[in-house]
From TrEMBL:
GO MF assignments: [glutamate-ammonia-ligase] adenylyltransferase activity; [glutamine synthetase]-adenylyl-L-tyrosine phosphorylase activity
Protein's name in the database: Bifunctional glutamine synthetase adenylyltransferase/adenylyl-removing enzyme
Residue span of region Adenylyl removase: 1-490
Function: Involved in the regulation of glutamine synthetase GlnA, a key enzyme in the process to assimilate ammonia. When cellular nitrogen levels are high, the C-terminal adenylyl transferase (AT) inactivates GlnA by covalent transfer of an adenylyl group from ATP to specific tyrosine residue of GlnA, thus reducing its activity. Conversely, when nitrogen levels are low, the N-terminal adenylyl removase (AR) activates GlnA by removing the adenylyl group by phosphorolysis, increasing its activity.
Adenylyl transferase, as annotated region: 498-1001
Family annotation (Pfam families): GlnD_UR_UTase, GlnE
Underlying gene: glnE
Gene3D superfamilies registered for this protein in UniProt: Beta Polymerase, domain 2 (3.30.460.10), Nucleotidyltransferases domain 2 (1.20.120.330)
Classification of source organism: Bacteria, Bacillati, Actinomycetota, Actinomycetes, Jatrophihabitantales
Transmembrane segments: none
Enzyme Commission number(s) from the entry: 2.7.7.89, 2.7.7.42
Keyword GTP-binding in record: no
UniProt cofactor(s): Mg(2+)
Amino acid sequence: MVRLGFADPERAVELVTGTPLGLWDVATNSPVDDDAAMIVSALARAADPDLALSALSGLVDTELGRQVRHDLARNALFRSRLLYTLGASVALGEHLIRRPQAVAGLLEDRFDVAAAEERLAAAVGADVLDPVTGTSGCAAAVGDYDAVNALRDAYRDELVRVAARDLAGELALEQVAEALADLAGYVLRAGLAVARRELPAAAASCRLAVIAMGKTGGRELNYVSDVDVVFVAEPLDADQPVEAALTSATKLAAAMMRICGQAAWEVDANLRPEGASGALVRTLASHEAYYRRWASTWEFQALLKARPIAGDLDLGEAYLAVISPMVWSAAERADFVTDVRAMRRRVVDHIPAAVIDRELKLGPGGLRDVEFALQLLQLVHGRADEALRVRATLPALAALRDGGFVGRDDALSLADAYRFLRTAEHRVQLVRLRRTHLVPDDEAALSRLARAMGFRPDSRGDAAAVWHSEWALHAREVRRLHEKLFYRPLLEAVARVPSEGMRLSPDEARRRLEALGYADPAGALRHLQALTAGLSRRAAIQRTLLPVILSDLASAPDPDAGLLAYRQVSDALGDTPWFLRLLRDEGAVATRLARILGTSRYVAHMLVRAPEALQMLADDAQLVPRRRTEIETTMLTAARRQEDPAAAAHVIRALRRVELLRVAFSQLVGLLDDSAVRIALTELADATLGASLASARAGLAAELDVAELGFDFALIAMGRLGGQELGYGSDADVLFVFRPRGPGSASGGADHAKQAGQLAERLRRMLATPSTDPPLVLDADLRPEGRNGALVRSLDSYAEYYARWSSVWEAQALLRARFCAGDPDLGERFIELIDPLRYPVGGLAPADVIEIRRIKGRVDAERLPRGADPHTHTKLGRGGLSDVEWTAQLLQLRHAAEVAGLRTPSTLPALWAAAEAGLLAAEDAAALEAAWRLASRARDAIMLVRDKAEDQLPTQGLTLVAIGRVLGYPPDPEPGHIVDDYRRATRRARRVVESIFYEPD
């Protein structure tokens, strides 16, 4: 028994030697005769020998057991059919033991599923051959069972007929799927006949057509699946009220769904117009009106498989005549790509993480991948080629192959993978006749699945191991499906070399690019032609890479801009050997690059100037932002190698460009959160200022022909730079301060002031000279007297000004002051100078509080750009950055002298220090933080997407979708969700601002 594959040999011995089987002679330890030997051998070949033996013992113990035992010995086909069924399905074995008369169906030589219709009709005592009335005859007796129980038993009998021949290898997958779909149709007709008998008045007052959808419509049904349908109804007579007919038809449809659900499987009508919330039954005109005005693309994709299956078949054909033209023009819809992407996303999003690796249907490389890609090809090309307008998956694949849309080898490989996956799905469903698509995770069940599919142990391991390796192979093939079938023909359409596969015409290629979401398909084709032209190795590698690139670009918000940028990067690197090799060998790099280029113009613009930076995408460790000291050292070393000051400035900006790309890459691939981005950008700016100042100082000294300038110089960071809250588009707000050195420095003060001014101007030019790099604009408008004041002041001059003339707004601005570059001692002295001013002992005078509120009111009223929406302006809008920062700064000015935690240049630490001191409720601090973070992130996202520093969050369009992607929303989010989330956060923050900032004294 062990040698034959029985897992429980003791139980197996007990069953084969005892009654009622008596297959084994204990005395001789051998089968009792040759017939018994053949039965035991067949049991050993079953998917689960123990299960088959146990069920067989139960079946032979019934009133028909003697006949079953006789037929097993005499009929090889019957033996295989019965024992393989018993070894593969617990549910069907139990059914046969309960209804042994169903075994007779396994003795029939001819398999004719059409005969099942009469058997099902006889079981429920109805004539289902009249498609309109279905009640013209009720001659058969129902017997002791009611109609539903009779239909359930008859349906299971028919399942046994199909499954037995399937498991015995007599039917191909396509035949099994067609038989199951036809059987479903017969059950629907029988159920409708029973419903009409229950509701004779309703049956006599309407025409009702049942339209099969999904796998039932495509005649490719599983053993256990919902049966998707749509109902169409019309009055029986032309003068009959439509409302009355719809009421009757709805009652009939609901009764049919209930009867079939109790007897066989759930009837799912949720693919109807408006889904579960829509009317169950509609007239033909109502269906037409809905699909013309309101239907989404996914609904037309579902209608690819629609066919009349029960009820009034003429009405069903009329329905198809109306709907089909709309199905085959769906790819021309403006929202085609958006809807297709949404469908793809929903498939993946609904898979629980715990089972995604066991999914035969929905997981990567699963059945849905095959079906979805082929349907997409049908929708795109079926407009012009009617041969592609077929319902079932394998016939569709054959039509696409014959039409030249899929290569013959690819079609063969794909069909093999699809048959394997569908067969596996059938086998796991047969065990207990439950709807499942999961590969079992216990060894015994997995071994049963493998054996049920004909796998046996070999040198690679047991049957389950062999099956698993085969599954992995097919899944890999399917995973290549999308790029192989949908993208690669585009390259062959523009290539100038012979191709073995299909070749799209330029018009077909343009249509396919349109379907993928390219707004300028002609331009995209030109890019493809330029990238793949010729016989060079570079062109050959591009032809291999571009399917992946195109696939990922199609999922990005702006495929056209992404493809242009990819071409520019490719052209910039020319024949650089590592570039294409990196993309080819590091799959993650190609995917990351495409998605980044299709999302961020900011990155695309810089990457064209620094294409070597994309090597960082191959290693997450390379995407970690570098610290200030490391960056500054690298910049200084590179700058000192340059003899020309302009060259030194150029090399510093080039290194800054690479570091900006590092930060942007990290953010766009999800490795950096918003806080880390702000710190990284601030440290990069500090390093750039430090290196640039050192270079500018050396250059000025050389120009003046002195060994060293006679004064110390420091940059004081202000604003977002001072708060270490820098964004991609932020200017660098600074103050310039100098201090003469050594004895007699006072007499040389005028010269030093002039030279310090020259140094500051030189520094500003170095960083802001127009170029293709993002500038770092040094903004000194927060200096004493603003734009009218001296650009550079000495430390003593600052002290005198602040002692005599300083206004409260200057104290407020100095809250964010921080030494960032130059002489550390001078920077420290400056901070010591301003601390009493910005952290005043005793807080603010009432007049100063009033002045701050007045200035804030003026800012709100005058500085918001004309036409800007105050609800979505990230800086000056209600609840935006300015609101939150001014509130934090007012608390600092009033209480920082007493609360040490408030003495910080950064906004969020100040807010939470206020909360810890009881100056602000924790929930209010959280509301302000949420709004400030979201506004900062949105501002950065706008810069990344548009390569333009803007504060206005768009409320619709492609830009908003791209911004949502940067913010972490799913692909193609509902644009309203992004705006709603932003307005909700800022609305809550504004309420806090009004209660804190404008709090009565």
